[in-house]
C-alpha cells in the first residue's frame, strides 16, 4: 500500500496525525517502550514518512523500522505489498522488524520490547 506523499503538505501531516490518534493497542504498547529514548537512548519517530510510505516507528540513528501489522496483513495481496515495502526499505539501507497485532506486540508487549532493544543493540 503506497501513498503519494509530500512531507511538507498539509494533507500528509493530517494523515500522519490521524494515524497516531487511531493507533492500535499494539502500537500503543510499543510506543510506551520506545518513546523518550527509553532503552538504549535512541530516538524513535512515530508515523514517520519515508519515501512513499508512512512507517509505524522509525529510528534514524540506527536505520531501524518497526512495523506493527494487523490481521489484514495476512491476506495474500497485503502480504505481497508488505514484502514489496520491506524490499524498498531494505534497499535504502534500513532494517525492518515486523510484529503482528495478533500476538507479538499486543499480546506480549514485554517480549516485543526486549526484541526491539536486542535489535537496537546489534546495530550499535
CATH superfamily: VSR Endonuclease
Number of domains: 1
- In spatial order, strands of the major sheet run 1-2-3-4
How many strands appear in the DSSP assignment?
A: 4
| CATH class bucket | Alpha Beta
Strand percentage = 15-25%
| Classification by helices and strands | alpha+beta
Largest sheet: 4 strands, mixed
> Over the alpha carbons, how many angstroms does the gyration radius reach?
14 Å
Spatial shape: globular
User: In percent, how helical is the residue content?
Assistant: 40-55%
CATH architecture: 3-Layer(aba) Sandwich
On the 0 to 100 scale, the average pLDDT is 75
Enter the CATH topology name. Endonuclease, Chain A
State the distance separating the first and last CA atoms. 31 Å
Poorly predicted tracts of residues: 1-5
Task: Indicate the topology.
Elements: H1 10-21, H2 25-34, E1 45-50, E2 53-59, E3 64-69, H3 76-91, E4 95-100, H4 109-122
Defining key terms:
single chain, 124 residues, four-stranded mixed sheet, 4 helices, disordered N terminus
Short description:
The protein is an alpha+beta fold and 124 residues long.
Tell me what the structure shows.
The structure is a single chain. By secondary structure, this protein is of the alpha+beta class. The chain has a single domain (about 10-120), classed as Endonuclease, Chain A, CATH 3.40.960.10. It is about 40% helix and about 20% strand. The protein is built from four helices and four strands. It has helices at about 10-20, 25-35, 75-90, 110-120; strands at about 45-50, 55-60, 65-70, 95-100. It has a four-stranded mixed beta sheet, with helices on both faces. A hairpin with a 2-residue loop joins strand 1 (about 45-50) and strand 2 (about 55-60). It starts with 9 loop residues before the first helix and ends with a helix. Residues about 1-5 have low confidence and may be disordered.
Amino acid at each position: 500500500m503506497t501513498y503519494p506523499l509530500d512531507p511538507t503538505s498539509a494533507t500528509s501531516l493530517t494523515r500522519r496525525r490521524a494515524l497516531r490518534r487511531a493507533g492500535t493497542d499494539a502500537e500503543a504498547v510499543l510506543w510506551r517502550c520506545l518513546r523518550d529514548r527509553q532503552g538504549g537512548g535512541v530516538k524513535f519517530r512515530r508515523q514517520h514518512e519515508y519515501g512513499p510510505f508512512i512507517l509505524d516507528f522509525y529510528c534514524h540513528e540506527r536505520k531501524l523500522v518497526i512495523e506493527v501489522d494487523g490481521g489484514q496483513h495476512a491476506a495474500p495481496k497485503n502480504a505481497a505489498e508488505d514484502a514489496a515495502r520491506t524490499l524498498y526499505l531494505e534497499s535504502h539501507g534500513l532494517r525492518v522488524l515486523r510484529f503482528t497485532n495478533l500476538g507479538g506486540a499486543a499480546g506480549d508487549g514485554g517480549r516485543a520490547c526486549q526484541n526491539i532493544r536486542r535489535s537496537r543493540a546489534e546495530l550499535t
